[in-house]
Design a protein that fits this description.
about 325 residues, Potassium Channel Kv1.1, Chain A, Neuraminidase, three-stranded mixed beta sheet, 12 helices, about 15% strand, elongated
Amino acid sequence: MSPGRTKDASSTSIVNNLSPRRERRKKISMKEINLSPRRRPSRRTPGTNHVIDDLNKLRLDGHYCDVTLIADGKRHLVHKNILVASSPYFKELFEAKGNQYKSEFRLIGVRSSALSVVLGVVYTSSLNASDVSELDDLRETLRIAYTLRIEVNVVCGKFMIARLKCMNCVDYFLLTKEFYMDDIRNEVVGYIAKSFGEVIESNLYLPLSCQQIINFLSGEDMQGLTSEQTYVCDIETNVWKPFTDMPIRRLDLAVATMDNFLYVVAGGQFSGDSLGIDSIGTVHQYNPRFDTWSQLCPMKKRPSLFSLDGMNTYLYAVGGKNTQGLSSRTFYQSA
């Protein structure tokens, strides 16, 4: 064999050995590349959002922050993308003409301590008790968040419900009305209604209107649902306790006492319709001596949301609405 042919053959062999079709590949196990989940080290705690934790740590350490918010002369380093994702206020602020390349923004009328709490909620979705130890701190946090259009109601609501008690429930109720925290307000209202006697004792001054107090004292469900429940106040403990159930469920009913009998006149409704479309005219009398209910003759008209009072064996129903939404006036003579 000539040297030239030997060279050609050798070259051909090398090329053939590099061909993917004839290449012999060695199988690599998971142990060799060390990707086994059991062998992979981890410093993370399962079930936590480490991205958020790391971002908040970067904020607190001042790393990779590209925006500075100034409130009360104090500087707060933050990440622009986090603010934009959390608040349309900041999105509009950063995109406004002349602000695209600014890195510092002064916030007027914003308390620095409250801003710090709000930013903490944005980054961690949690609220520390030490940050809002006073009611004014919580109110200011809600106010700043509302001004900056940052959603903190869910976090603050959970914080309030976890610490709800007689000494603060009325203040929390007013906060939920001020900042439109409807879901949380329903829970606070339910708590106040169940413990109203104790609430009155705990609060030397109740910052409630007369109508709000009447609503808390009403045989009606606080969420606007029909109910057959009644309550009685224990004069020894000043606590409202469940009493006997009415014969039917109703809403917006009127009650009065006369001749030692309780009268429940259901110009109330079967549902929460405020126009009285499905109002009823039934009259029930409760006899406390025998703990019994009796159904009397119904009213000639069927109003709802009216006032009821008894005088000289007559029950007077004044005002209210009927199917036409009109006020009415009538009377009913007891048997």
